[in-house]
Design brief:
The chain has 632 residues and is mainly β. It contains two helices and 53 strands.
Amino acid sequence: MPRFRQDKTNFTAGEISRALLGRSDLRAYDNGALTLRNVVIQPTGGVSRRAGLRFVDWAAGTGRLVAFEFNTEQTYLLVFTAASLAIYQGDNKVATLTAPWSAAHLASISWTQSADTLLVCHPDVPPQRLTRNPGGVWKLDVWVFHTDGDLVRQPYFKFADAAVTLQPAATDGSMMVTASAAIFDPQHSGTVLRIKGKQLRITSVASTTQVQATALETLPDTNATTAWDEQAFSHLRGWPVTAVYHQDRLVIGGSRDLPNRLWLSRSADLWNFDLGTGADDQAIEFGILSDQVNAIRALFSGRHLLIFTSGAEWMVTGDPLTPQTIQLNRQTRVGSPVDRTVPPRDVDGAILFVTRNGRELRQFLYTLDEQAYSAIDLALVARHLMNDPVDMDFDQRRRLLYVVMADGSIAVLTSYRAERITAWTRQETDGTVSAVALAGETAYVLLARGAGWTIERFDDALNLDAAVTGSADPPVASWSGLDHLEGQTVWAVADGAVVSDLTVTAGAITLDTPAGAVQVGLSYRHEIEPLPPNLLGQGGLGARFRLVDVLFRLHETAALRADVGRGLRYLPLHRLGVAAFTTAPAPLVSGDKRLRALGWPADGTRPAWRIEQDLPLPFALLSVTTELKVND
C-alpha cells in the first residue's frame, strides 16, 4: 500500500468545472480547485478571505453604477436608478439629478467620458450629457450638435425607399413639402430635412404625404427630387446606441433604426458631423454590411477603434482616420448581448467582452504576428460560473475583474496575462448584486438586500457584509446606525472579539460587554475545496486513496475550520485555543498547521479535504501538502 505526498503550491487555475474531473492530465487540474467561494486568489498563488462590504447608502432601486473622474484627485460614483441620478464622492452623496431613463432602460444604457463630460446613450431616449463645472455644479441635459446659425451639423439618412421623391412648394420661407409616397408621421414635427443638401425644419405634419416646413437655407429649385434625407436621430427614428472618443473624433455607433451604422465627427470638432467634401478632417459615415446581422452594441478606443456587434467583432483602421484611409475589417464572429449593455474592459492591453450566449468571457487581443485580433474564451474551464453576465469592471490595483451575473452572484477573475494566471472564484452575499463599478481604487456594488437596495463597497479592513464601523471612548454596549439591517441577525467584531447572533432592533444592537471599537454586519462564508487527488502514476483515476494527514501553510490567519474526514472543526492555531475568538482578539498566525485524517472515501470524485468558515476574521492559505495512501 504505497504512501506518497502531493504539494499543492498554488490555486492559479481558480475554480474549475466538475466536467474536468476526468482530466487530471491538465495543468489546470493541479493548480485549480473544485470550490473557491468568497476568497480571492493572490498573484503569488495563495487564497485569502475576500474583503467585506461596507454599507454606503440606500439606493432608490436597481440600476447601474458608473465612475466619473473629474481629475486625478476627484473621482465620483454615479448611481443611475429609475428617473434619478445620484452622485457620490467617497461615501457622501453630493448631488441628485432628475434623469430621463426608466427602470426598463437602465440595462441598456452606455456611456463614455472625456474631461468633465460624460455622454450617456440609450436607443429610446435622447442622448444626455452630464457635466460638472469647476464650482462643483452638476448638470444633465440633451446633446446639442454643432450649429451654424439655424443649420444643424448632425448626421442625416434617407429612411424611405430610394425612389421616393420630395417636392417643395417654394425655395424659401414657409412652404408645403409633398412626398410621392406615404412616409410622414406625426413625430416628424420638429425634425430637420435636407433637400439637395439644403436644410428645412418641419413645423407640422398635414398628412402622410405632406408636411409644412420652414427653409433654414435657400433651396436650389422646386423640382421633385430623390436627393433628400432627414436627421438620423429623432423620437421617430430612435437615438444613438453607444459612443466613444477616438483620434480626436466623437464616434457614434448605431441607433434604434440604424443599428449597424457608424458616424465619426469632424476631427477636433466633436459635435460637427457634416460630411463636407470628404477632406481629411471632415466627418465620416458608413454602414457595416456583411453576410450577418451586425447591430452595434459597444465601441472601444484602443490600439484601433473596435466595434462589438451582435454577430461579430470589427477593427477600424486608418492612421490617421480620414474619409480616404478608413478601413473596416471583421476579426472574429462571436457577438455581444443584445438585451443589455456590458461594457468591454481593458485588461493589460486585451479587451475583455461578454459573448451573446452569456456563457463566455472572451479576450480580444491583437497579435503582431497575424496583424489581427483573436477572441480566446477565458471561462472555458469555469463555465459553471458564467450565468448571463449583466455588468463588469476591472480593479487594476488588485488585478480583479468583477463580473456580475444575472443570478446576483459575482464571478471574480484574477488576471495576470504576463504570468498566464487566469483564475476564477465566486463571491456571494446575503442578497443579489445587480451592478459594479470601480471609482478610483474602490469597487462599489449595487445590490438588493431584503426589501431594499443598497450601495456598498469592498473594504479590506472588514470581514462582514453590509457592515458599519464605530468607535467610542469610553467603551459602550449599545451601538446604533444599523437601520439598514433592521430585524436581521448580525455579527460583530467588538475590540477584536467575535460576537454572533445579535438582532438589530430599532436600528441598534446591545453587546454583553462594552467595546471601544466595533464592526457590525452580515456574516458570509468562505469555502475551499480542492479537486480529488491526482493519481496518475499512482494507480490511475479509479484507485482508492486514503488521506493520512494534511499540512496547511497559513499566512496571517486568525482561524482555520477544516474537514479532513472527521467533519468540520477549528484547528487550535495558538495556545489560547478556539475560545479566544469570543473573548479577545485572535492572534494572527503564519506557518504550518498539520491535521491527521481518518477513513477511506467512498467516492473518488470527492476532495480529500475542505475548508469552510464564516468566522469574520482574517484568513490566508498559501499552500497545502497532503500525504496519501493508495490501495494497490
